[in-house]
Amino acid sequence: MTNDVTRDWLGDPEAQPDPVRAARQSAKPALPKRFYTEAGIAEAEDGYRLVLDGRPARTPARRRLAVPQAALAAALAEEWGAQGEFIDPAGMPLTRLVNSALDGVAERREAVIDDLSAYAGTDLVVYRAGDPARLVAAQAAAWDPVLDWAREALGARFILSEGVMHVTQPAESVAALRRAIEAVETPTALAGLHSMTTLTGSLLIALAVLHGRLTPQEGWAAAHVDETFQAEVWGQDVEAEERLAKRRAEFEAAARVAALSA
């Protein structure tokens, strides 16, 4: 960051790692050293700002990193305060998601809503296995309550399909889910919903988490019934488990951002 606290991956081109050079050296780009002592928040006209040593932080697009919710700002400050000698963006999922919300979602709200609405016609939970019986039962146990909630809370009914054959969902149900998306007011909550949806392939599960029908842990488990079954049958794949763990952390961070944005 510069004197107003904007450096490296938050916007200073002179401090950005050179990916071409890094590839040539067969090494990862060097992480920037921590350049501040204390991370905190400050109330201002644009909300609660993240401040580093009292100076406002900025997003990659040079906007002040400020949110309307004090609790969300405090979570960002906690994330920055937890950094060690070097600043590692991979360990800052809340900051990355809020940056995306402020720099992208806020100005592209309708496009984000359109993108999310597309999942209404292809949601994970409507495509069921025909066998084995144990997997069929596991999917029903995890997904039927989500469909029941969507019907009762959102007025959306869905047609189930066996296998991967596409099924056209009722137009009124697709419209009901779009209304549910449009009801998400803040860019940060919408960014959280988008991240949860893309990480799981299920808008219904993401909405259920957003509305508190499922905890983030329950939502993640529901979205990975098939993977859990395969691991039970064939055993765990260490590399696959590591990849899933990273995605799960992103999912839980998205759920937290959405909850703190309410």
Helix vs. strand class: alpha+beta
User: How much helical structure, as a percent, in the residues?
Assistant: 40-55%
Strand content: 5-15%
Mean pLDDT: 90
* Rg from Cα: 21 Å
Topology:
Blueprint: H1 19-24, E1 39-44, E2 47-52, E3 55-56, E4 66-67, H2 70-81, H3 93-103, H4 109-117, E5 127-128, H5 133-154, E6 161-162, H6 171-182, H7 187-200, H8 203-210, H9 216-223, H10 225-234, H11 238-260
Parallel strand pairs: 5-6
Antiparallel strand pairs: 1-2, 2-3, 2-4
Describe this structure in words.
With 262 residues, the protein is α+β, with helices and mostly antiparallel strands. 52% of the residues lie in helices and 8% in strands. It has eleven helices and six strands. Strands 1, 2, 3 and 4 form a four-stranded antiparallel beta sheet that branches. A hairpin with a 2-residue loop joins strand 1 and strand 2. Helix 4 runs antiparallel to helix 6. The chain is globular.
Structure summarized in a few sentences:
Helix content is 52%, strand content 8%.
Properties at a glance:
262 residues; alpha+beta; four-stranded antiparallel sheet; two-stranded parallel sheet; disordered N terminus
